[in-house]
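User: Could you go from structure to sequence for me? I need the amino acid at each position, not a summary. Structure tokens:
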């Protein structure tokens, strides 16, 4: 238990400890927990320096002696090289041609266990996608890689899924004492939802269950380091290797709780005590939803700001007069020697890219997996379908089409930022206009994907691949163009704090062709009340009344 009088300080220390480039969220739904029987995992790659683009590596054969260069994903630092596999599979972002998908979130853990080997967590993902076809193959590839070459990062959680099953694996290095890593992997039950968000989620686990795998020394190593001294059956991976404090609970487990709350509200409600006060039982690794989840709901969950919960970011005074569910960094601040924290929601402004991966064993082979891919803030992005058979990345998502320092108007990342950053200033007014366009596009895409399943099923492999590659490219292009128009529209409509009047889908003009006087919406009542009651401004700003 964490005592409540220590919570705020712990929130602050943990929030500061999470590397900004690694603060990510991954949600999971098993195939019997979804409306269509597909397995779904999500990912938000949140970083203030990560440019949103879709990585791609074609399948390839490699001659004996070929070496693969290892570059740390977060820093671009060269770590070394390892022998290349004889054949590598085609990858599209965090998915490969077989539909295997891997997501992650970093939790750091005990700093003395930071890895000293060759394989960082990003390389671990992308090398594995090139070498494994299934989730179980991926588990073996990943653990073999860190055992053979050493692990270079801190504590990490991974979602690893194919069209048949989904696993959570948690892994941390052994510091300078050993180049390997200790880890636990658990298969998520088919009828459950799960997730992780920058805090280790695996506590006690069965020691003789074929759907739980773990490093042979995961318990003995903890004993040797003084992290654990109880019975083996009482061992908690999270308690031993992670740091459980206020930031890990409210800032990290809180995001997973919000997912649980959305789909299993009565049973999830008691775990709010764990999230807010560190009291009661830990948030469970998985939970059964009350109703089955569909892909549009998973996309909506990636847009969550705790709406409708005690942590609702649109409701507190920090939201301002336009109910903005965003808080600029740093996450912690001090007032009169007391430390406070902002909430950390799933949707956040500094996302590079996010996705909802949908893997369905019943779908045509060319559509076995769909990476619903978006760039920038998940709340305002458009999720475009990228199929496992796609052979080319659309120009709008391509690596090198713009970067964090070079704006490109045909790059989806920059155009989505153009829309989102206007809304951050006047959210409650602009978000209905954004939702209207966003939903129109995503509804149209969803309808086309549904209709394409039967058409693609009868196509030869090469024709199906070409058809789906073109479909992805068209929607990436059309959405980017439409969002540029949306950004222009927002700039014109909300210019100078006003709202231009509209009629019949156009900005309204007088009979003489002049602009009609705009609306002056001003601010909300709480804003005006704050001014009126401010001792430094209220009396001074009272309207003068002449007798």
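Assistant: Here is the amino acid at each position, in order:
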């Amino acid at each position: 238990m964490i005592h409540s009088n220590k919570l705020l300080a712990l929130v602050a220390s943990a929030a500061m400890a999470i590397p900004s480039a690694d603060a990510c969220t991954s949600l999971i739904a098993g195939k019997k927990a979804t409306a269509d029987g597909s397995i779904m995992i999500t990912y938000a790659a949140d970083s203030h320096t990560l440019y949103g683009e879709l990585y791609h590596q074609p399948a390839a054969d490699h001659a004996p002696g070929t070496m693969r260069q290892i570059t740390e994903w977060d820093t671009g630092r060269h770590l070394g090289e390892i022998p290349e596999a004889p054949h590598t599979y085609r990858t599209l972002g965090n998915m490969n041609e077989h539909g295997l998908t891997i997501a992650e979130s970093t939790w750091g853990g005990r700093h003395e266990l930071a890895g000293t080997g060759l394989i960082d967590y990003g390389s671990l993902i992308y090398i594995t996608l090139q070498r494994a076809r299934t989730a179980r193959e991926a588990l073996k590839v990943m653990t073999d890689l860190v055992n053979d070459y050493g692990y270079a990062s801190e504590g990490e959680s991974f979602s690893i899924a194919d069209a048949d099953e989904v696993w959570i694996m948690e892994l941390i290095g052994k510091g300078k004492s050993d180049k390997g890593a200790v880890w636990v992997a658990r298969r998520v039950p088919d009828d459950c939802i799960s997730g992780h968000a920058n805090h280790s989620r695996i506590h006690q686990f069965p020691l003789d269950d074929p759907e739980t795998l773990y490093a042979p020394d995961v318990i003995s190593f903890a004993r040797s380091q003084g992290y654990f001294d109880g019975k083996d059956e009482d061992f908690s991976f999270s308690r031993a290797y992670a740091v459980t404090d206020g930031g890990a609970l409210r800032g990290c487990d809180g995001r997973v709780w919000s997912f649980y709350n959305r789909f299993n509200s009565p049973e999830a409600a008691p775990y709010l005590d764990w999230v807010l006060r560190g009291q009661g039982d830990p948030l469970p690794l998985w939970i059964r939803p009350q109703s089955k989840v569909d892909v549009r709901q998973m996309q909506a969950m990636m847009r969550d700001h705790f709406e409708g919960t005690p942590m609702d970011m649109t409701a507190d005074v920090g939201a301002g007069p336009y109910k903005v569910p965003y808080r600029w960094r740093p996450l912690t601040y001090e007032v009169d020697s007391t430390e406070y924290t902002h909430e950390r929601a799933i949707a956040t402004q500094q996302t590079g890219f996010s996705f909802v991966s949908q893997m369905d064993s019943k779908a045509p082979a060319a559509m076995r997996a769909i990476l619903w891919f978006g760039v920038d803030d998940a709340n305002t992005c458009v999720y475009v379908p990228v199929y496992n058979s796609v052979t080319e990345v659309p120009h709008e998502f391509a690596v090198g089409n713009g970067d964090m320092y070079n704006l490109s108007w045909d790059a989806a990342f920059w155009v989505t930022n153009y829309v989102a950053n206007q809304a951050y200033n006047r959210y409650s007014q602009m978000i209905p206009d954004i939702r209207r366009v966003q939903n129109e596009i995503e509804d149209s895409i969803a309808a086309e994907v549904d209709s394409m399943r039967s058409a693609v099923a009868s196509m030869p492999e090469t024709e199906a691949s070409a058809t789906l590659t073109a479909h992805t490219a068209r929607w990436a292009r059309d959405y980017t163009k439409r969002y540029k128009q949306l950004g222009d529209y927002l700039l014109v409509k909300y210019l100078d704090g006003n709202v231009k009047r509209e009629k019949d889908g156009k900005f309204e003009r007088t009979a003489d062709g002049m602009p009609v006087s705009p609306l002056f919406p001003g601010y909300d009542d709480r804003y005006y009340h704050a001014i009126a009651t401010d001792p430094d401004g209220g009396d001074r700003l009272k309207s003068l009344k002449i007798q």
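One structural detail worth keeping in mind: The chain has three domains: 4-341, 400-497, 502-547.
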